[in-house]
Design goal:
29% helix, 24% strand, 25 strands, alpha/beta, binds zinc ion, six-stranded mixed β-sheet, 16 helices
Amino acid sequence: MPAGPEIILTNARVHGADTGVSAVGIANGVITATGPDTEILQYRGENTEIIDCKGCALIPGIVDDHLHLFAAAAARMAADCRPAATPAVESVLSALRESQPRRDGWIRGYGYDDSPLGLGRHLTRHDLDTVARERPVRVEHRSGHACVMNGAGLAAAGIGRDTPDPPGGTIARDAHGEPTGLLLDMESWLRQRIATRVDAGEFRSAIRDLADALLSYGITAVTDAGADNGIDRWRAFEELLAEGAIPLRVNMMVGAGQLDELRREGFRYGDLSADGLLTLGPAKIMLTVSSGSMHPDFDTLCRIIAGAHDVGFPVAIHAVEREAVVASALALMDHPAPIGDDRIEHCGEGPPDVGELVAASGARVVTNTGFLHYDGERYRRTVASDLLPHLYAAGALDALGVRVSLGSDAPVVEPNPWAAMAAAVERRTAEGHALGGAGLPSVPHALSKHTGSHRIALGQPADLAVVQPDPLFTKPRLLPEIRSVLTVVAGKVVWRDGV
Ligand SMILES: [Zn+2]
């Protein structure tokens, strides 16, 4: 008698399958049988594990098509000082007081915002001295270009009133010339001076923790969008995947600046790790607009795109502002992808005229409707009312025929794909306020934008999740509560909670 499937899932509401299908057989990482329970159970072998899904929904595994795994893991080792979590100076300080120091002795926080809609001012060393006097404290600004330290932190970094500003960096000082604790653009200078090497074991447990959070949402695959990803990051991912610290599929973008280095090592687009869980993705290009000018300029952008295409890599262009999205679309029209698909990341501002250009470019848009859910209240206060309906406009872009998929951009916001789907359909903030604009037409439609090519069908990779409540019968505003009770990646159960 043949061995039978390794796993049989029974008693499930199988999304996208014919009526009567309630069971799925899995062997060697793929779906080998689908049908009614009674039929599929006949295939059971001696070692088949039978899992009763208790009538829950069985959906294709969710793909988070844009996030930053290392930064999101590091954020889990620090206090959350983003305005949504800590809207006042005092709440930032109490979050820091309550957080565990890291094994290197530092108390760390991330995401504070000095803007009038964040805290209204920069933190100072004196604020942070109230968190700890003996122990160094450091809080990162949400821009990634500044941090604030307490007195012990400044001392550990060797910064005093006589320390000159390093090239390219600024030590903010008060009227008496004393450092205020605010350090601007000093990341690499600080790295050379303070032993803030993250403890390897501590980092692994943070990344494992993050992976569990992703699996608990039913996510089975992610795209890491690091703009500096190169050979070192590839090796780090290989190791983390091989030892099971990241038990899901990772598609790693390559920094456009790191393409040469990877090519010299013989890498090509689409390469797989030995276990098949890690793939080499498109070349990431950062296109930013600051103080009115675009970096890089249009000609340079075209040159970078052509360079990546020449060596067989599609591109993924970071473009948030209207000007950047337009430039990306125009550049991609001039340079169609010879292989795979070119992507525009974020597409933050997408009014109809911009959407039409994007549609004409043929690029896929990977947008972040989760921002509408988590940061929507801030948008309501800061964004012009005529632009608000066109922010992260998944629905409008989809209606124009643009291929749209969703990514969280974690750690910018929580990687809860159900919150992103709720906002993609309803265009409401977490507090329930409408932002206007066209949403995606339905929850199943939104789910299809968040599950990539995954399907529950014979011969497909067994990347799937059993979730509750069933998204098809859940009001959009309650979608963010959905969790996975069973997540399967490449035929292996990697998350189980309640079945
Ligand atoms: Zn990103």
